[in-house]
Design goal:
CATH class: Mainly Beta
Number of helices: 2
Order of helices and strands: HHEEEEEEEEEEEEEEE
Radius of gyration: 18 Å
CATH topology: Porin
Length: about 260
């Protein structure tokens, strides 16, 4: 059932007309803002290597990440961000050596003021982790916690950070969850809608006392297919730190993002 939902969401969004009033550079700049008030659907593919004790495993993850704004009042907007990971991994030391399925689904819900005094855009709200109970892919635990983001955009530059913390609150998984995620990000968008970005998607497991820190460098271009704006991106990632059985070395990232009208 979970495999069908992203397709249904996209079919509904496809009926909405694309942004016609914004320039391509404006749209590309807004994509660097995690809580921009526009509908977007990124498809983010990550390929990582050197998993397992012998570092002979690899994993492919396609994250489907719809972002939908909802006006709550004249002063506040609710930005809903959902991450649905489709995972295919081959790690000889896990189970039968290969698994595929939907990983745990993360939802972040930011209450964002429509005014930005001093140019600082911010949002705060709850985050939730929904287990899918796929062996060796899902943690098998429900988790809840706070999430927040703050950023500034000026002259094509975007600088900011997003963070959350999740505690397990139930589920059949063997291990409790206490995990902090911190993502500082920096990007620059040119007048012809090229964006160059750098971020670190750092997570800290408080139970294992272990960091996982992939650093991502990306370049993307906003283009149009007819009137439909689409951002196409490619990047490299390197693990500055990770658990002994986790990913190591270099990986690759590919991103296709569809943009729709509010």
């Amino acid at each position: 059932m979970n495999r069908i939902r992203p397709i249904v969401v996209l079919a509904a969004l496809a009926a909405a007309p694309a942004h016609a009033q914004s320039s391509d550079a404006d749209l590309a700049t807004n994509l660097s803002n995690p809580v921009a008030s526009m509908i977007s659907v990124p498809f983010q593919y990550n390929r990582d290597h050197a998993f397992g004790d012998a570092r002979d495993g690899h994993k492919s993850t396609l994250n489907i990440q719809p972002v939908v704004p909802t006006a709550l009042s004249s002063d506040w907007t609710l930005i809903s961000r959902v991450i649905v990971p489709l995972v295919d991994q081959h790690i000889p030391s896990l189970g039968d050596g290969g698994q595929s399925g939907i990983g745990d689904i993360t939802g972040e819900f930011f209450f964002v003021p429509k005014s930005a005094p001093g140019g600082v855009i911010w949002g705060i709200g709850p985050a939730v982790l929904v287990p899918t109970h796929v062996d060796f892919i899902s943690a098998g635990k429900w988790a809840l916690g706070p999430t927040a983001v703050a950023l500034n955009q000026a002259n094509g530059w975007t600088v900011g950070a997003l963070a959350n913390h999740l505690w397990s609150v139930g589920g059949s998984g063997a291990n409790e969850i206490s995990s902090t995620f911190v993502q500082p990000f920096l990007s620059y968008t040119t007048k012809d809608a090229w964006t160059y970005g750098l971020n670190a998607e750092s997570s800290y497991d408080w139970n294992a006392r272990q960091w996982t820190v992939p650093i991502n460098a990306t370049v993307s271009k906003l283009v149009r297919f007819g009137q439909q704006p689409v951002s196409l991106g490619i990047g490299a990632r390197h693990y500055a730190d990770s658990p002994a059985g986790g990913p190591h070395g270099w990986g690759v990232r590919l991103v296709v993002t569809l943009l729709f009208a509010e």
